[in-house]
């Protein structure tokens, strides 16, 4: 999404990204970014919380107009739910699962090779 | 882990590197990075602007895939909004949350409500979906230009991009 925002902006269309992967987005470098510090999957607010979703979109719309220059990041004023373990969960590597992960990777590479073969045929 | 570390944003790049090494990949993914960042100043008063919503989700049934399995930019109507979209193929935290509420990743109702209040003039008639691709070349060479063309066709003055 960061690359897409850059392309639109380079062609004169203002953009704002709403997302939760702060390091990825800032590493790329984008014009405007509303950072929501939630697990990946719910960038625009907690599920079933239309009030929060409205506030986050309002913040993004405001940033579209107010940003003075690129790399403008603002943080939404909301925390994730009462779930203290969420930051450690995504993509964690459990040493006890080493063999299972290696097998999973092998399976993925085989599937990708087949997909690439079909796409290039 | 101390309290300060517990509140730090998740280091997804580092996490992803470790995960893919554990899967046996020999080379780390190289994340795009740029010294220069383009910036288009917002020229019109917000209350007179038409804004478009963009998602990384797919249509139900992954209908944006062609016969070779290549995914393409796709579009949907904001009125009526789609009840749900397909997110199962994307990398998000499926243990900590869910995407049963489409508003938490494509907030059409929230944006339409702001337009109804006069914060901006209205939503573009279509939202658009952009595939998340491993290939930066495809995103920059095909998907981003296609999205720009669709936004221009819709008369959008700006875009809100919601990345799952």
Quick structural summary:
The complex is a heterodimer of chains A (121) and B (164). Chain A has 5 helices and 3 strands; from the N terminus they run H-E-H-E-H-E-H-H. Chain A is mainly alpha-helical and 121 residues long.
What does this 3D model show about the protein?
The complex is a heterodimer of chains A (121) and B (164). With 121 residues, chain A is mainly α. Chain A contains five helices and three strands, in the order αβαβαβαα. The relative contact order of chain A is 0.13. In chain B, strands 1, 2, 3, 4 and 5 form a five-stranded mixed beta sheet that branches. At the A-B interface, α1, β1, α2, α3 and α4 of A face α2, α3, α4 and β5 of B.
Structural class of chain B: alpha/beta
Strand order in the largest sheet of chain A: 1-2-3
Following the backbone from N to C, one meets helices and strands of chain B in this order, namely HHEEHEEHE
For the record, give the distance between the C-alpha atoms at the N and C termini of chain A, rounded to a whole number.
Answer: 28 Å
Multimeric status of the protein = heterodimer
Largest interface (CB < 8 Å): A-B, 80 and 82 residues
**Strand residues, percent of chain B:** 5-15%
Topology:
The complex is a heterodimer of chains A (121) and B (164).
Chain A: H1 2-10, E1 15-19, H2 22-28, E2 32-35, H3 50-66, E3 72-75, H4 86-89, H5 98-120
Parallel strand pairs in A: 1-2, 2-3
Chain B: H1 3-6, H2 12-22, E1 50-55, E2 74-77, H3 108-116, E3 122-123, E4 126-129, H4 136-153, E5 158-162
Keywords:
heterodimer; A: mainly alpha; 3-stranded parallel sheet; extended; B: alpha/beta; 5-stranded mixed sheet; 4 helices
